Structure formats: structure tokens, C-alpha cells
Amino acid sequence: MDPHPLARSAGRTSRALVVGVGLLVGFVVAAVTVGRVESVGLTRMEPARPVQSLALRVDDAADGSITLRDAERGDLVATVRPGADNFIRATLRGFAQGRLRAGLSREVPFRLTRFDDGSLRLDDALTGRSVDFGAFGPSNFAAFARLMPNDGTVP
Question: How far apart are CA 135 and CA 112, in angstroms?
Fold first, then answer.
């Protein structure tokens, strides 16, 4: 009795299949290489430019609140009361703890910057840390956006 035709080829790969897979892989590599070299299908975006900036000095108050001041003018920007604006509190606490662990000064202000594409970022020049608030949802973005001055100051 002869074995079934599929049983005879079990465990062996046909030469045509191997050649076909090799050609497909070669084509994909060539297509990606040509696309990268010639910029086919790639979208280039200009980097966003800052349009508004605020140097923030953060101070702790005796009642547990945090005061945010314009470091250049000394004006009070906001007061974050205990239990309120938790995203602002947690973000600033994380930045401050990063400085504390590195043994850096608290005196240098953080920089909150709005860009021409609508994005908003908080930077710490001492640690190099930055947070882009677009990744945290509209309510958390709005929490920091309301801190921005209305006069359009640019760094």
C-alpha cells in the first residue's frame, strides 16, 4: 500500500517555496531601502517653534499648598491647594525629586513652553528632563495650559 501523497512530502520544504520566500524578502528589503534613500512615502514635519514661555519658580507653603510664580517678574501664577490639581502637584514633585536626588539647586526655575503646533512642554534645564503634556489627555494638558501668561512672551 502506497503512503498518501501528502505524507511523502512531510518534513521536506519544496525548492519553489524557499526560492519564493527568498525573493519576497529580497524585494521587501530593496523596497524599504529605496524608500528610505529617496524619502518615498515619508512625511517630514518642521520642528515646532516656541511661541510662549514661562519660567516657573515653585515654592512650598506651610499649609501644604504650592505656589507657582513667574521667576522673571515675581508675579503669582497659581496656588495649588492640597488635594487640588493633583496632576500639577505630582508632575512638579517628580521634577523636584529628580533635582533632590541629583543634589541640584531648587533656585533655577522650570520652563513651561507653548509651541506653534499647540503642544505644551515643561523642561528642567538642570536635569534635562522634559514632559510633553499632549500625551496625558486634555484635562491634564489644560491644567498646565491655564498657567501660561496671556501676553505671548517668548524665551
Answer: 15
